[in-house]
Each structure stands twice: as structure tokens, then as C-alpha cells.
Specification:
By secondary structure, the protein is α/β, with parallel strands linked by helices. The protein has helices at 3-11, 18-29, 35-48, 52-63, 91-101, 120-125, 136-146, 159-169, 177-190, 211-227, 249-260, 268-282, 289-301, 304-315, 321-324, 351-363, 405-414, and strands at residues 79-83, 106-110, 148-152, 195-202, 231-238, 246-247, 334-339, 344-349, 377-380, 387-388, 393-399, 416-419, 429-433. Helix 5 runs parallel beside helix 12 and helix 16 packs antiparallel against helix 17 (405-414).
């Protein structure tokens, strides 16, 4: 096996064999192939795609780069959820405690920020003390004892994906259906699940900009899940605007707390409850998704979902003081209010641009070595279809980097398009694949 020949073969649009794919993944995981060579391989895959057979081989190679966890001795259905990523997408922080409070076991292995999108691990680690790096023994204990665990890829669980994920983020190879499928499914299949709920985003803030590509990705993910005999439901959801109002790691934790305490948040509320309802349904605690949604609402109203969130955070070392008294959390050195430059109905939002503004403020990474500022981010108030007036507050920026504020203020206003005519609110749940 020669990595250069394999790169050339894929560059020339030829189909790779299982052995060639296994060789590339295992060699890179073991440090036998340098970043620059594997980056070339990723770009060849990004440009030329992979067949269904190649994608299955890629997923299998990444899955078998580490341990496949056996949770069969833990009673209850093990159901997880995965989102393909978006702006202000903090649904995992809300639905994991909802599902756990409903009696579902939630073994959730999540990722870090990728490109303009936030990562669940980065959000959780904005809670002081929260550990996303648990060993296998603690992983199983937390699922059995607390009903849910939220961790990242360890050296034992899909280690190939952990390396490849970070490299994709900085080589412009994120928006690839086979690479996304391999990344998601290798983690999910390794964690010991019985079923999976998928949230495939489409729109300006998603990796899949149009619904056609989102459907292709959803089909790729569901077919792969079924090949491994896993129950699966996929939602295609709108990401043409922030899902909630808060963008940035601690800010999104804060908004999750608000929702768990019963606050209605447009967008986030509908999508999250559909996903948690599907998890409860797959976990056999409801006879339909609709019944699962009603159970989710009840668990929030009774305070059981928030109590479960505190329990999960405390079990993983997080300081729950900041969740019960968020005013104690450290503040950004600088903040700036952004006001509408003209009146009209909100017609379109460049959600990708909002994600990149958040990154520039310090909430994301430009390189693998960059450190995230958990306080940084945006509070973005309007939504598509809403009427705004000139001079009205549309956003607040938070950062420790004073020199970027003026430019980010300007870019945020450029990301908004208004219309004199009334604009309909977008449909948030585009399609469900059962």
C-alpha cells in the first residue's frame, strides 16, 4: 500500500477498495501518514465523493479504529441524537436530560466546533469543571446511574474520527457527505446505541445549503445506520437563521438552562421537542413521536428535565452554581450593541456569516491550536418574518478582543436582509425520514 498512489487514484475519480481505505485510516491514526498527506486524501474525497460501498468501508474503518462499547448489561433502550451542526444549535443540552428524565439511556459522544458551527463539547466545557474526557468505566457508570453521559471521542472510542475531525475543520473539507457520514456513524455505532435520531440541517447556516443535499446526507446516514441494525429517524430542519437567540459556548448553555426552566424560545423549542419526542418514541416510552413531544413538555413543566441536567453536569464534575446562578459567570471584557440601520420585515439572515462573526469574537477556532473563549458570542434578537424598526436593537456582541468589534458590528448588519413586504416565517421541520 502506498498513500500517494491511493491519493492519486481517488484524485482521478476511481473507486478505492476496502483495503485501501482501511490502510489510509489505520495508518493516519497510528501516525504513519503525516497531516499534509492525509489532507490531500481528504480533499480528493471532498472533490470526487465516495460510492455507497466506499462510504460503508470508511465508516467501518473509523469505527474499528477503537473499541465498540457493549452496553447490553445496562437495562433500558440506549438512544442518542446527532445534529449535523448549525448556528445556535444547543439542542443536545436540552434533549439529553429530557430523554434521560423519561427513562431513556442516552450515551452521547459529541464533537467540537467545526468551521462556523459550535460544538457540544466546547459548550459543555464552558461550564467550569465539566469533564468530557471519561474512561470507559465511568462512561458506563454514568449511563447506568444518571441515565445520560456526554463525552468526546477518547483514545478508545473512534480515535480515527477525533484526528480526522480536527483536520477537516482547518482544510476546507467539512461539507462532504461521505466524510460527514463516516464521522457521525463511527462515533454513534461505537457508543453502544440501540437507536439514533438524526437532525440534518439545511440552509445558510448549515453544511448542506440546499434541501437536496440535506436529503442525500440524511439518506446516507440512515442507510448506514440500518446496515448496522440500528433504529433510526432523521429530521431535515431549517438552519437559515439561528435556532435560538444565543450564539457562543456559555451563551448557548445559558439559553439551554432558560428552556429547561420553561422559557419558550422560538425555533429551539419546536425542533428540540420534536427530536426528544422521537428519542422517547424510539426508546419505547411513547407510542408515537407526538406522545413523546407531550412527555417532553411535561418533564420541562414539572422541573424534572432541569433537575436531570444538574444531575448530569454534577456527575461529570461541572460546577452547577453557574447554572442555578448564571449571573456569577465571568463577563466578557467588551460588549457592543448593534442597532438596525433601516426598518422592514426580516427577509433573510446570512447564518453562515453570523457563525463566522462569533468565531472572530473568540467563540470558535481558526486552527487546531486555537483556544476558545467560552464567554464570547452574540445575542441575536430578530427572526425571519419579524418586523423591525430603524434604530431597534438587533444584537449584542461579547468578546475580549476590542479590536474586532467595529468590523463585526458592520458585518452583522450586512448579514441581515429586510423587505418592505411581509415575510412568512420558514417551516422549521422540513422533512422526516422514518
Amino acid at each position: 500500500m502506498n498513500p500517494v498512489e491511493i491519493i492519486i487514484k481517488k484524485r482521478n475519480k476511481s473507486e478505492l477498495t476496502d483495503d485501501q481505505i482501511n490502510f489510509m485510516i489505520s495508518s493516519y491514526t497510528q501516525g504513519k501518514i503525516p497531516d499534509y498527506q492525509f489532507s490531500a486524501f481528504l480533499m480528493a474525497v471532498f472533490l470526487n465523493g465516495m460510492s455507497t460501498v466506499e462510504t460503508a468501508a470508511l465508516t467501518g474503518a473509523m469505527l474499528h479504529s477503537g473499541n465498540i462499547i457493549d452496553l447490553s448489561k445496562i437495562k433500558g433502550m440506549k438512544i442518542d441524537k446527532h445534529s449535523t451542526g448549525g448556528v445556535s444549535d444547543n439542542t443536545s443540552l436540552v434533549l439529553a436530560p429530557i430523554a434521560a428524565a423519561a427513562g431513556i439511556k442516552v450515551p452521547m459522544i459529541s464533537g467540537r466546533g467545526l468551521g462556523h458551527t459550535g460544538g457540544t463539547l466546547d459548550k459543555l466545557e464552558s461550564i467550569p469543571g465539566f469533564s468530557t474526557d471519561l474512561n470507559l468505566k465511568d462512561y458506563k457508570y454514568n449511563i447506568r446511574k444518571h441515565g445520560a453521559v456526554l463525552i468526546g471521542q477518547t483514545k478508545d472510542i473512534a480515535p480515527a474520527d477525533k484526528l480526522i475531525y480536527a483536520l477537516r475543520d482547518v482544510t476546507g473539507t467539512v461539507e462532504s457527505i461521505p466524510l460527514i457520514t463516516g464521522s457521525i456513524m463511527s462515533k454513534k455505532l461505537a457508543e453502544g446505541i440501540d437507536g439514533l435520531v438524526l437532525d440534518v440541517k439545511t440552509g445558510s447556516g448549515a453544511f448542506m445549503k440546499n434541501i437536496r443535499d440535506a436529503k442525500l446526507l440524511a439518506e446516507s446516514l440512515t442507510e448506514t445506520a440500518k446496515k448496522f441494525n440500528k433504529k433510526v429517524i432523521a429530521f431535515i430542519t431549517d438552519m437559515n437563521q439561528p435556532l435560538g437567540n444565543y450564539i457562543g459556548n456559555w451563551l448557548e448553555v445559558l439559553e439551554a438552562v432558560k428552556m429547561l426552566k420553561g422559557e419558550y424560545i422560538y425555533g429551539m423549542y419546536e425542533v428540540t421537542l420534536n427530536l426528544s419526542g422521537a428519542m422517547i418514541y424510539l426508546g419505547k416510552k411513547a407510542s408515537s413521536i407526538e406522545e413523546g413531544i407531550e412527555k417532553s413538555k411535561q418533564l420541562i413543566e414539572k422541573g424534572k428535565a432541569f433537575d436531570k441536567f444538574l444531575e448530569i453536569v454534577k456527575a461529570q464534575g461541572g460546577n452547577i452554581t453557574y447554572l442555578t446562578k448564571p449571573e456569577k459567570y465571568p463577563k466578557s471584557k467588551y460588549s457592543e450593541k448593534v442597532y438596525a440601520s433601516k426598518s422592514g420585515y426580516m427577509k433573510a439572515i446570512d447564518n453562515y456569516q453570523l457563525g463566522m462573526i462569533s468565531l472572530e469574537l473568540g467563540a470558535g477556532r481558526k486552527t487546531k491550536e486555537d483556544k476558545i473563549d467560552p464567554k464570547a458570542g452574540i445575542i441575536f434578537y430578530p427572526s425571519i418574518g419579524q418586523k423591525i424598526k430603524k434604530g431597534e436593537l438587533v444584537a449584542e456582541l461579547f468578546t475580549d478582543k476590542k479590536n474586532v468589534l467595529d468590523e463585526m458590528n458592520k458585518k452583522l448588519l450586512e448579514s441581515i436582509t429586510t423587505s418592505k413586504e411581509k415575510v412568512r416565517r420558514p417551516k422549521l421541520i422540513k422533512k422526516i425520514l422514518r
